[in-house]
Write a structure and sequence with these properties.
The complex is a heterodimer of chains A (about 250) and B (about 260). Chain A has about 250 residues and is of the alpha/beta class. Chain A has a 6-stranded mixed sheet with strand order 6-7-8-3-9-10. Chain A is built from 9 helices and 10 strands. Chain A has a domain of about 60 residues. Chain A is globular and about 55 Å long. With about 260 residues, chain B is mainly alpha-helical. Chain B has one domain. Chain B is built from 8 helices and no strands. In chain B, α3 runs parallel beside α7. Classes of the chains: A alpha/beta (about 250), B mainly alpha (about 260). At the A-B interface, α2 and α3 of A face α4 of B.
């Protein structure tokens, strides 16, 4: 039985069809990367998975539970077992790093304050940012924010991790660092992961399998190497590193 | 054959937006009442917001309070002298301030300061996905961010209004002393004679509703903001306009009700 099952999911915003009859299975422990051009519904699919958006048609099962048939209490129980790293990291501006990390623990679990403190410190050590514990998010760089966002997402040790463009806007060195960090944490915590990204470097480090969304439909599925080396024109264009012979007009 | 969409005029667009906002705000207020009476009550968060909102607004309402009392007295005094009714000055000023000017002006200033702040804060949280992050963490953002702020506004505004009324009465005394002799004891005696319990209850009582309006409008505009920073700016400015307008409309209704319940 798959850990995540997406069955014939479609989603539109007004006349704009974002996802069309998408079906997908993700096995427990698998790290699946979702590629696709901007606006092809990758982030929408992630938001449907956690119940932030409701699909127009189709069903989504996580650990055998139908996400969109649950009441809010059941959905929140499920969400406690899911980590989500947002594209912008989505750190709470009004809280320090310590409070950001402690927030889900204090609200959802019955840990003592010393246990919360210990978990916060351990999560920050995992992302090598223990020194930033009392800083405000506004004092952090983009890469640091992403790492803190990652620490907050994994602090509850979820079974399923969803990453929405974890390395967008970062330089290649920080991209490698964050990607390796994600891979190491996945190995350590044995999580199932779905990663939305445009970044092939990040995907190479993290993923087992990949899919490519095109016009709201899954066009290709397979291992990353097969996709990168495919003869398909679209995939060639998508994964090509070659600089085309196009010079700027004088 | 390609079906062409009917063109919507600007007026029609505005009407659609107006009724859309009205319906959205009503549904948002209903959601508030459905959520607010069930635990967790987030008392620490309410206390924190009361503290922040009170401190934020205190300087501006302090100046306003003193000025209301001073200006109202200085403007009314020559008119009352003309009618030989100068002795009624403390009576007139205190009744005006307690029943109408204090509550409404404090509420309008509070709306300008707080509603826009709530709109901008929640709007920025919405566009930077912080509200989504809260929801995904199994925390109800509506309860944590909206309910706490609206309750804090509804509690803090009556307190600020009482403070403004007190300062306006002090300002009135300062203005009277500037133009004629009057002892403080005599002034206090006249004020106590002038203000009845029935004046105070509707005056301060209606600010609970005004506080609710300020909180719910700011929260609604911010919580439903979109289109990035443009949406945040729009949430901030429109929340002040809508809250101020609703305060004036609500005041008209509540004056009618209070005059029926506590006739002058």
């Amino acid at each position: 039985m798959s850990f995540v099952e997406i069955k014939n999911v479609s989603k539109s915003f007004g006349d704009f069809k974002v996802l069309e009859d998408v079906s997908l299975d993700v096995q427990k422990g698998e790290n699946l990367v979702i590629f696709g051009k901007s606006g092809t519904g990758k982030s929408v699919l992630l938001k449907c998975l956690v119940g932030l958006l409701v699909p127009d048609t189709g069903e989504i099962f996580i650990n055998d539970k139908n996400v969109h048939k649950m009441n809010i209490k059941e959905l929140n129980e499920l969400r406690k077992n899911i980590g989500f790293l947002f594209q912008s990291a989505a750190l709470y501006d009004s809280m320090t790093v310590r409070e950001n990390l402690a927030f889900p623990l204090i609200r959802n679990f019955n840990f003592s304050s010393s246990e919360v403190q210990e978990k916060v410190e351990r999560a920050l050590e995992n992302v090598s940012l223990i020194d930033a514990i009392d800083k405000m998010p506004s004092e952090l760089s983009g890469g640091m924010r992403k790492r803190i966002g990652l620490a907050r997402a994994i602090i509850t040790e979820p079974e399923l991790m969803l990453y929405d463009e974890p390395t967008t806007g970062l330089d290649p060195i920080t991209t490698k660092e964050i990607s390796r960090l994600i891979r190491d944490l996945q190995n350590k915590l044995k999580m199932t992961s779905i990663i939305v990204t445009h970044d092939i470097l990040c995907a190479k480090i993290i993923s087992d399998n990949a899919i490519v969304l095109k016009d709201g439909i899954i066009k290709y599925k397979g291992s990353l190497d097969n996709l990168v080396n495919s003869d398909d024109t679209f995939l060639n264009d998508f994964f090509s590193f070659e600089v085309l012979d196009e010079k700027p007009e004088q | 054959m390609i079906k062409q969409k009917a063109k919507i005029t600007v007026t029609e667009q505005r009407l659609i937006e107006f009724f859309g906002n009205l319906g959205g705000l009503t549904a948002f207020a209903v959601r508030f009442f459905k959520t607010a009476f069930f635990p967790p009550y987030e008392l620490a968060e309410i206390k924190k917001h009361m503290d922040e909102l009170g401190v934020k607004t205190l300087p501006i309402v302090s100046v306003t309070g003193i000025i209301i009392g001073l200006v109202l007295t200085l403007q009314s005094q020559p008119v009352l002298v003309r009618f030989g009714a100068e002795g009624f000055l403390p009576f007139m000023v205190s009744i005006s301030v307690v029943r109408e000017l204090g509550p409404v002006i404090t509420a309008l200033i509070f709306a300008g300061r707080v509603s826009s702040g709530i709109g901008a804060e929640l709007g920025s949280m919405r566009v930077t996905e912080q509200i989504d992050a809260m929801e995904v963490s199994a925390i109800d953002p509506f309860k944590y961010l909206v309910v706490t702020r609206v309750i804090a506004c509804s509690i803090i505004l009556p307190l600020l209004t009482m403070y403004v009324i007190f300062l306006a009465i002090v300002g009135c005394y300062v203005a009277i002393v500037l133009v004629k002799d009057m002892t403080l004891q005599l002034y206090i005696g006249q004020i106590i004679d002038a203000i009845k319990f029935g004046d105070f209850i509707p005056g301060v009582g209606k600010t609970i509703f005004f506080g609710f309006i300020v909180g719910i409008v700011g929260a609604y505009k911010g919580y439903t903001a979109d289109k990035g920073t443009e949406g945040v700016g729009k949430a901030s400015t429109t929340s002040v306009v809508v809250a101020s307008l609703l305060i004036l409309i609500m005041d008209m209704v509540l004056v009618k009700v209070s005059l029926w319940l506590w006739p002058v």
